[in-house]
Amino acid sequence: MPFEFMIPIVMFIVTGAVIITFLFFRSREREIILAKDYTAEELILLLNPGSKKKGVLVVLGILTASFGFGMLTGTIVDKLTGENDYVPFIMFIAVGVGLIVSFYVREKLNKKEGE
Predict the structure, then answer these.
(1) Which residues have a Cβ under 8 Å from the Cβ of 16 and sit 6 or more positions away?
(2) By mean pLDDT, which of 44-48, 63-67, 88-92, 103-107 is the weakest?
(3) Hey, where are the domains in the chain?
(4) 3-class secondary-structure state, position 39
(5) What is the average pLDDT value for the chain, to the nearest integer?
(6) Which pLDDT score, from 0 to 100, does residue 50 have?
(7) Which residues are CB-contacts of 10 (< 8 A; sequence separation ≥ 6)?
(8) Among 6, 55, 76, 115, which has the minimal tally of Cβ within 10 Å of its Cβ?
(9) b or e along 41-79 (b: 16 or more beta carbons within 10 Å of the residue's beta carbon)?
(10) Which of 77, 70, 61 is nearest to 96 (CA)?
């Protein structure tokens, strides 16, 4: 009995559950923050997501670029050698290097913001 029709249904249910859970916990976090006695300036600093966004976008950009570089390098090695086994290893190594580079770039951004 084929169950291929279940894949999109389960995918939409899981995606909806993740979005609803994210929104619920975000609103609950804001309720807890507002329940405490903070001044207006402290609330703006706590609830302002713009200050965190720059680092996240840089990290995602570096990870995406390193993943693409790993796929490109793996495909080139696959075409040259005819072995498919090296492609995942090269991709994991490239993403690992991308994580290390993004860590140091984010540290540099945090250091620059602290000055």
Answers:
(1) none
(2) 44-48
(3) 1-48, 51-115
(4) coil
(5) 86
(6) 60
(7) none
(8) 115
(9) eeeeeeeeeeeeeebeeebeebbeebeebbeebbeebee
(10) 70
